[in-house]
Sequence to fold (1027 residues):
Amino acid sequence: MHFFNFGRAAWRRGLLWALLAGPGVAVGQQVPGPAAAPPDSARLSQRQHRLSEVQVRAVGPERFAVGSRRFELDSAVLAQYRGGNLADVLQARTPLILKNYGPGQLATIALRGTSAQHTAVLWNGLNIMLPTLGQNDFALLPVGTNTRVSIQPGPAAALYGSGAVGGAVLLNNDPDWRPGSRGSAQFDAGSFGLLGGSLEARTTTPTVAVRVAASYREAQNNYSYVLREARGPVRYTLQNAALRHQWSISPDVAWRVGTAGEVTAAAWLTDADREIQSGVNVAGSEARERDQSRRLVLGYRHLAARQQWAVRGAWFEDIINYRDRGTPSNSRVRTTQAQAEHTSALGARGSLRLGAEAQHFAALVGGYGSETITENRAAAFALLRYDPRPGLRLSANLRQAVLPAGLAPLTPTVGLEWDLLPAPIDTLTNSPTHQLTAKASAARSYRAPTLNERYWLPGGNPSLRPESGFGSEAGLRHRLSWGRRTTLETELTAFRQDVDDWVQWLPTAGTGIWSPRNLRQVRSQGLEASTALRRRQGHYTGSAQMAYHFTDTRKTQGSTADSDPVGVQLAFVPQHQASFATDHRWRDWLVSGTFVFTSFRYTSASGTDFLPGTGLLGATVGRTLHGPAGTSLLVLVQAANLLNQAYDSYPGRPAPPRTVGGSLRLSWN
Amino acid sequence: MKKQFVPFLAGLALLAACDPKAAEIVPVPEPAPTTGVFVLSEGRFGAGDGAVSIFDKASKTLNVDAFGSANGGAKLGDVVQSMGVQGNRGYIVVNASNKIEVVTLPDFKTAGTINGLDQPRYFTSTSATRGYVTEWRGPFTGYLPGVLSILDLSTNAVIRSVPVGRNPEQLLALGGKIYVPNSLDNTVTIVDEASAAVSSTVTLSDGPSSMVADKDGNVWVLCSGFVTYLSTPPFTATRVSNGALIRFSPNSPATQFKLTFPATGGPSKLRINPAKDQLYYAFGGAEYQMSTAATALPTTPFIRRSFSGFAIDPRDNTVFAAVAPSFSTNGRFIRYQATGVAIDSFEVKVGPNGFVFY
Fold:
């Protein structure tokens, strides 16, 4: 159905007003709650927490990111891509820029033209960026694990701490307090040796909610491609590109303690064994990589009417073991994190959150030598939300991090939303009604140097400064409704993001040893436009969504040691990305189509060599068959690259031709 | 309402037509045989975009990808390491693609491919039918003794492989012998051309990597020395052995004249001028020039700059020097007068590392 929640379109109107404009705008507002939670497509960013007669909502951090663009992958969309990874769904459904080495291979994001290290990835509020590399491989994040995936591009993400320069990707498992047990088991098969399966099961009592999600996937990726050689075009089969296995298991439990307390515990274990595809002109590579992550988080949250507080502790272990014929290159990082925050109401119109967090890293990495390297980081923050009147919402945040090399830049964030045309009170009319909101936000952001940048042997630079960013965005959000059945929501955002002290690895004069240094300034600016039409009538629900991103990212200034030219569009940042998706459900049928266009992108800093533009078409057809005792069977057929375009996803890495896959999902209630 | 999507789709079609024009396929007239310089660019590892550019000295024009433009856009391969010339044939050693692309000169049209190689490095030949290529063996974490492969240039096939030391580099053919410097050892393997067997192995200093013959028929070997890194903080680099420049006569390789470099760096890329009486090498971020009659290493650089490739044009003594600032940016080459005064410079592909004059 809906796959993006652009802004707040899917919010129920009444709830929208209760949340944003109602007099009880302060935290912990008490709303007489409907018995059932809203449907998935209307899931709020504020979690439903049903106490006996009233609901007290936990306040999510996004509440303090006023005035910024934010979008959410709807659970109906996540369900369609449940066998895949986060890179798959983002590439098929959004105009976001991902740099991808092939199916199942390394995939990194470039939000608003920034680098892979400039997008923070948070799982249940905790940063899960790999401390060694300072980035995430989106191919290692299976979609089915999380119930909610949202993307917060731009400056307001700075409230999430280090790395959120271009934005943040937020993964969450929210407890589902609807009583009873339900679940589903799915089997997937597809082109080029793709096999997979997944399971999701929940059970909920009035005090305990348990969920387990697990998935398995393997793929041979032995598709053919044509290489133009001197003797003519020659067809080869891709070698050493198999996904040997990819497991993910994530159990979580929520337990209500007393009338206001909630204990949550969650784990996420992933294990992937991949052959690492080298460039197709490189002969005889046998590279393999084993990626394992173990993530545990334990939290307690106290929700009262006028104040909330929460503490969380987490322990992560990330293992990357790489080998290519020779001695393996192994790394293991253990991260211990603690967070505490307190949120209180400021009168009837404001709320203030104060908090602190600390991280401890212990890294045993072949590249750092034989000893375990440890590093500590800490940060304190104050987040303020204030709505002076119903149609005007403001936020102002401040965050200060302490890093081993000293203080990180102080990162303030400010945001504003102003309803130029407020929503009409009468929502029953069928004549078109308009709603128009202006929004703006600005923030400073930073990225702490990664462990590799500080400790790599040789070349690691312990005196590296954090990168600092300054970003701003402004735009308009328009919503046109015809009664409650049809809406057209359009959003236009212009942004600018400057990054200073951008880190670049370059050979040191004299020794030739590659070393990271704070060398350059980069400016990214652009436009993001999106429009989504949704209709619901009788047994039909449908939507059509289009989005276009213009991203202009250039180095604006650099030191003499930095040879990359100034003023050239950065490599692997296409200037134009556009996506179109349409989803239709009628009775038991489901039909979806997606088209993503990516313009050419340079493959080096010189701006001479490039990968040509691509247009990728995908489609899904599904039918649900109802069985006895609340069971149902969903039959899903999915195809990607329907136009069978031959292209390289990265130089020397041919992308898959047309692929077809099928899924069977058995659900029970 | 859906009609408003139509202009959007039309816009997409327009954007799709926006790719920059592919510049490399435009045919450039081949230069006269006496004015061409082939510039080798490694390309980025994994991208398969190594190239040989043809620079025409007369017109100062550059055909950036000579192989691609002569062969229907075919890619040369991954990591263009070196190139040798025999008659009107060029032999381009493509290291990571494990092959040598054979082309006719000067048009660069394909004349076959030599396969069956593993980590090929440098090529030389002694006749129209006999070629030699050094190859490494083993992974980078534990190299094994390499080989000198003997090639039949009439069939483009490997005849046999002679075991040599670890990481054999820039070989030299002289007086019926092939001299192979084993850069991860301290030896030069001498292979007899007629018997295709090792005749002797000479011990020098650590890291022999490049060699030349001077006007008197002596062999000069540049040894880079070895460096290790401390495995605990602060990870300082420690020089295990210093570099050395060694001269010996082919008649008595064990009798060596040796100049030792200071521990401040490792020398590399030994070259000689067309008159074969001036040596050139890179050391400590600069290029040095030294007479073959000198008895001490020079202390003042010839050009105070670090180059990724260096060669002297035998036709007019012009110096060609390559600059590869990083592997994310195109490289350049700079022309210098024989005195070391810069003339001009041109942009080539990523990672230029050498020049061939034809």
